[in-house]
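I am writing to request your help with a piece of structural work I have in hand. I am sending you one protein, given as its amino acid sequence and as whole-number tokens for its backbone shapes. Kindly check, if you would, that the fold set down in the tokens agrees with what the sequence suggests. You will find the record immediately after this paragraph:
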Amino acid sequence: MILSYYWPPSGGSGVQRWMYFAKYLKQLGWEPIIITVDEKEASYPILDKSLLEEVNDIRVIKTRTREPLKMYSRLTSGASLQGIPQGEVQTDSLFKKIAAYIRGNFFIPDARKGWVPFATEAAKGLIKEHTIEHLITTGPPHSTHLVGLALKKAYPLNWWADFRDPWTTLFYNKQLYRSLRAIKKDALLEKRVLQSASGILTTIGGALHENLAKKAPQQEFIALPNGYDAHLIDAIEEDKDPSFFHIVYTGLLTRNQAYPAFIQAIKNLADKKPIRFSLAGNIPSSIIKEIKEIVPDVDVHYCGYVSHHDAIKLMKSADLLVNFIFDGAQTEMISGKLLEYFATQVPVLSLGNPNSIAGKFVATGSCAEMISPKNSKAIRTFVEMLYKATDLPKNRCSDLPLWSREALTQRLIAEVLDRK
């Protein structure tokens, strides 16, 4: 049984980890059953109905929920989904500062905790109906783990809590104006989950595991990274246009990422042939406008939010793929998008800390670099090298097959589900 707030038709990166685990668990002889929220009531910032095709043979139970994010979105943007926060906390007005305070102090651990009673009731019904041995809860939202906490007390389950992102140390928590009381309450909930689960899954190890182990010294931690779907990558043909140098960025983009350093690096570069900079994802119009103003000679093309399939197609049309690590998250994640970038074999430039776990992964590519946003000369040099190349190199990584979704699911089975 897998409890995941995000599930198709939800779009974005948060849904893909357990969507693909469920897909390959099914193919490898397991019977995953999903408990999620009804998309009619969910606070999904984006939808991608094409993802439903990946899991159309998996049993899914959808529940009700109570949460304030749709109302917040209507107040801030006029639409029920458009203003749901993603990757940052906006505090550029008095109203948004008050909203951040309310979110940080009255909705602990998060503003989706209203799903917990409905998910718990559905899970108990499922356990009575079937012989459920294994339980996975995945967060964010980390309130999902509170369901696991309740179920573990009532049933002899092999419960693993999956931290796709850190909980109390998540980089934007400090922007929520949390009181000492709220901070302590959140930390207590995290500690209870860490100490009560059968084990903890994360996307990376290293410093994150060391930090979590201080709160649960007897706990077992396994790093099971994000990955890429090899079948999807192979099914999409490469379609490049040699008449321009094509730079592509996909995913969420916020002002908490170092994109300005890259934009300055490509300024006044288009002297040999035109440059097109394509961006796809949930990106504010103000950022797109800013980029266009800085590089008027570059054809900046905003595709909006596109399906996962079309995002891969766009990646494979690129001459250079760019990535911007969230400020404050340098040591805490390797995104699934970065793995997909590598799987396309297109050269990759990522701006962030070269000594981070993500930086060390990027260093395994034959034509990929993680460069500090402060090192403008190195950024420009890398881009110029590719821009002037007559034969664009491939970015190869010998260990890449280990990061395929199927290989990672085999690890999940061997290290978590099949263990005695």
